């Protein structure tokens, strides 16, 4: 994924995991995520985890200087015996991505979500999306994360402000 931000693997892996839950139901989140401690993370921690992810979301998946996975990517998506960040198991980006897609499914079809391009409009505003648009704009996955991290019912409270 050279030249991409961390939001691309979050969206892609979240969508892939979600699709696995649809085509092969009956397993635990830990089984879908291939890691029991990820499946045991409480949903109540999603908002704080999303905020932490957004702090890293401008990071690249591949370090352009060293030509290897970036430290930000490793913090969220790489496995290993040594924890990459306090309070979260390694690979927490997979867990967060799955939950982002689940929240989006409350108001969008799987077909619609799968058709979105996570790279569309990458030069736009990084933390918000017009709430009435049919197709997300701007740094769209960041907006999806913010939407998923809200607990607002019909209103979308974004990390950097409110939208209606």
TrEMBL record:
<protein>
    <submittedName>
        <fullName>Uncharacterized protein</fullName>
    </submittedName>
</protein>
<dbReference type="InterPro" id="IPR008948">
    <property type="entry name" value="L-Aspartase-like"/>
</dbReference>
